[in-house]
């Protein structure tokens, strides 16, 4: 595996991940809207803070001074980030509705997908500007540790994709055999 510092694209992705993980409750306005029907916003924010954010801060070894520097680097971009995150969230919701609408309209799906992609590009560009400001705050060891975290996340994501692909290839989905590969229309494992 190449060293983390020799992979600028990976370094940017890791810093993007760190930005999201460290500041998600603040940036996403998690206290302003209900994240799921089972978890109230303040519970989600508290859960995130206790279990994820503190673990990442500890694993990376961020000092209190670094946390303040990260906050100060993000503050000038906060309103733009919030606006772009809202636009992306709304565009993705529109895409879900377009895909599930009856009758199915492929052109509406294409348009909704293009709008979601454009919103994601704009957010990514803004995050890139913020990442440039965050890099000098972190030590080489912290960047290396974040690279390892990113690799773990990438591997877990890839594994989910591989498992799902294998299930589809084998004619299985949700524990059911596909009708075309089983003697009966529905066969459980």
Show the helix and strand layout.
Layout: H1 8-27, H2 41-60, H3 64-74, H4 78-100, H5 106-134, H6 140-169, E1 172-173, E2 176-177
Antiparallel strand pairs: 1-2
Helix pairs in contact: 1-2, 1-5, 1-6, 4-5
Tell me about this structure.
By secondary structure, the chain is mostly helical. It has one domain (4-158). It contains six helices and two strands, in the order ααααααββ. A two-stranded antiparallel sheet has the order 1-2. A hairpin with a 2-residue loop joins strand 1 (172-173) and strand 2. Helix 1 runs antiparallel to helix 2, helix 1 packs across helix 6 and helix 4 packs antiparallel against helix 5 (106-134). The longest helix is centred in the last third of the chain and has 30 residues, at 140-169. The two termini are 39 Å apart.
Task: Give the structure's gist in a few sentences.
With 189 residues, the protein is mainly α. 70% of the residues lie in helices and 2% in strands.
Tally of helical segments: 6
Sequence stretches where pLDDT stays below 50 over 5 or more residues = 1-7, 24-41, 185-189
Estimated share of beta-strand residues = under 5%
- Secondary structural class: mainly alpha
User: How many strand elements?
Assistant: 2
What oligomeric state best describes the polypeptide chains here?
Answer: single chain
Q: What's the structural domain tally?
A: 1
* Largest β-sheet summary: 2 strands, antiparallel
What's the end-to-end separation, in Å?
A: 39 Å
* Series of H and E elements: HHHHHHEE
Radius of gyration, CA atoms, in whole angstroms: 20 Å
- Helical residue percent? over 70%
Q: Which outline best applies?
A: flat
Strand order of the largest sheet: 1-2
Question: Roughly what is the average pLDDT, rounded to an integer?
Answer: 75
